[in-house]
């Protein structure tokens, strides 16, 4: 399993802020996601209505999750496939390894899959003598230097073109010294040449699944490179890894969600490849696997059903929330310290590994609300981060200084007269001390704020409530 370093978020975030290469990559990539999504949404007048439809599809499915998972299994079996139910990451790893051993596999090709990162399947296969080969270009680059993804749809989002070239030269030692990579297309050509032989030699192909369709027993993947198709059609065995909430009732439901997915993720109407896999190769088929396995993984998700975090299971992994998050936009994904970064990770990671191990993440938010406003299935991410903050406080996991500060604030908040008097006194003092400069570069008891930014000084004129009352009287 990918090492959990979420408790180290603050140090990793500080290091990210001081990394000029990372800041260059984040600045370059973030603006592109914003503009492309905006253009795609503007071109689809019914987009807001479609968001409501997507939300309702997922809510209905989650309310009847056991039923649709059983229907999905029946249809997979009817098409010659097999479904494996796994309670946790350990069971999932053992199941995949068992399938690979049964196929006498030595090499496994992989399409991009975040759930495979969650269960740590690459490390497990390698430890048991099986070579996994990432075939998504970004994932392939990262595998060369043993780096985890920093983004759920653009795994090498943190790298610049020159970083890609550096990693290629370090790993592809047979490259001529005078070989120049002028653009990413050159890198793609080089990767294609290396990967083609791996595709042909693989005994097993492993993909994720964007959706599982109960009505047909199909798994669906969306890619822009075509590597997913080669991964699941060339080897003798196809394994689809999926978490249990990926199931949807019908083909029509799936197509509705697909209309939301690419527009929210990359600003495309549809991804270049949208592939439906249903069972094993039939006699009349030109290609396809001899064996088709779906490994269904719970790994803590069923514990979210019926709680205030159930809405997180609506997520369709488009990454719109992190693409628009001001915190992710300056720290990148590695600062979050596990598989899922950004706002969705700040809710999902505590749900899967516990707030005791990841309490920094729901606090890594300005609560600006942009994540919720762009979510294609209307997940109230700020509300759920607030729930995690509440649980963290209830369990005495927050630092003592924060708890004492909140205790002082709560004492005044329960006494309106004292609160108003203290507010007037504090505002007046700050306005007087900050007169002229308009800001504070340092302030007692506010070092955590002023170490990284100035604190604006309030203008003379009283508190907000006093100004509001005066305005109301004038009206």
TrEMBL record:
Key word Ribonucleoprotein present in the record?
no
Any GO MF annotation of the entry: metal ion binding
Query: Is Metal-binding among the key words of this record?
Result: yes
* Span of domain 4Fe-4S ferredoxin-type: 305-335
Keywords recorded for this protein, A-Z:
4Fe-4S, Electron transport, Iron, Iron-sulfur, Metal-binding, Repeat, Transport
> What species does this protein belong to?
Muricoccus roseus
Q: Which GO terms describe its biological process?
A: lactate metabolic process
Extract the InterPro entries matched here.
Answer: 4Fe4S_Fe-S-bd, 4Fe4S_Fe_S_CS, FTHF_cligase-like_sf, Helical_ferredxn, LUD_dom, LutB/LldF, NagB/RpiA_transferase-like
Name the chain's protein: L-lactate dehydrogenase complex protein LldF
């Amino acid at each position: 399993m990918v090492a959990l370093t979420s408790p180290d978020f603050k140090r990793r975030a500080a290091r990210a802020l001081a990394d000029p290469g990372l800041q260059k990559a984040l600045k370059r990539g973030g603006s592109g996601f914003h503009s492309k999504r905006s253009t795609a949404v503007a071109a689809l007048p019914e987009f807001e209505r479609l968001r409501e439809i997507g939300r309702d599809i997922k809510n209905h499915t989650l309310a009847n999750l056991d039923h649709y998972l059983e229907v999905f299994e029946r249809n997979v079996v009817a098409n010659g496939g097999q479904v494996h139910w796994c309670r946790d990451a350990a069971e999932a790893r053992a199941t995949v390894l068992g399938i690979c051993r049964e196929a006498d596999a030595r090499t496994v090709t992989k399409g991009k899959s975040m759930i495979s990162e969650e269960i740590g399947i690459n490390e497990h296969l390698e430890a048991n003598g099986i070579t996994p080969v990432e075939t998504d270009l970004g994932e392939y680059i990262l595998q060369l230097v043993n780096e985890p993804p920093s983004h759920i749809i653009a795994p090498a989002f943190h790298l610049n073109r020159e970083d890609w070239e550096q990693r290629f030269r370090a790993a592809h030692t047979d490259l001529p010294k005078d070989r120049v990579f002028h653009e990413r297309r050159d890198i793609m050509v080089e990767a294609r040449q290396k990967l083609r032989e791996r595709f042909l030699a693989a005994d097993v192909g492993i993909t994720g699944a964007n959706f599982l369709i109960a009505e047909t027993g199909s798994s669906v993947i969306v890619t822009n490179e075509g590597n997913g198709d080669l991964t699941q059609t060339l080897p003798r065995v196809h394994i689809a890894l999926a978490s249990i909430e990926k199931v949807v009732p019908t083909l029509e439901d799936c197509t509705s969600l697909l209309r939301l997915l690419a527009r929210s993720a990359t600003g495309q109407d549809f991804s270049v490849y949208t592939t439906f896999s249903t069972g094993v190769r039939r006699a009349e088929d030109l290609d396809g696997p001899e064996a088709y396995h779906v490994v269904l993984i719970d790994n803590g998700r069923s514990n979210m059903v019926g709680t205030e975090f159930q809405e997180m299971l609506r997520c369709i992994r488009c990454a719109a929330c992190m693409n628009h998050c001001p915190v992710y936009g300056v720290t990148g994904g590695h600062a979050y310290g596990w598989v899922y970064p950004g706002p969705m990770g700040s809710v999902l990671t505590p749900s899967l590994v516990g707030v005791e191990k990841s309490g920094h993440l729901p606090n890594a938010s300005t609560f600006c609300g942009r994540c919720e406003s762009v979510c294609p299935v209307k997940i109230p991410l700020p509300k759920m981060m607030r729930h995690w903050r509440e649980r963290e406080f209830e369990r005495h996991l927050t630092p003592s200084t924060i708890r004492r500060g909140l205790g002082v604030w709560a004492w005044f908040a329960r006494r309106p007269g004292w609160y108003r008097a203290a507010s007037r006194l504090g505002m007046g003092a700050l306005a007087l001390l900050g007169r002229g400069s308009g800001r504070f570069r340092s302030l007692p008891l506010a070092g955590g704020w002023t170490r990284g930014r100035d604190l604006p000084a309030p203008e003379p004129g009283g508190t907000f409530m006093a100004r509001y009352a005066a305005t109301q009287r004038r009206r």
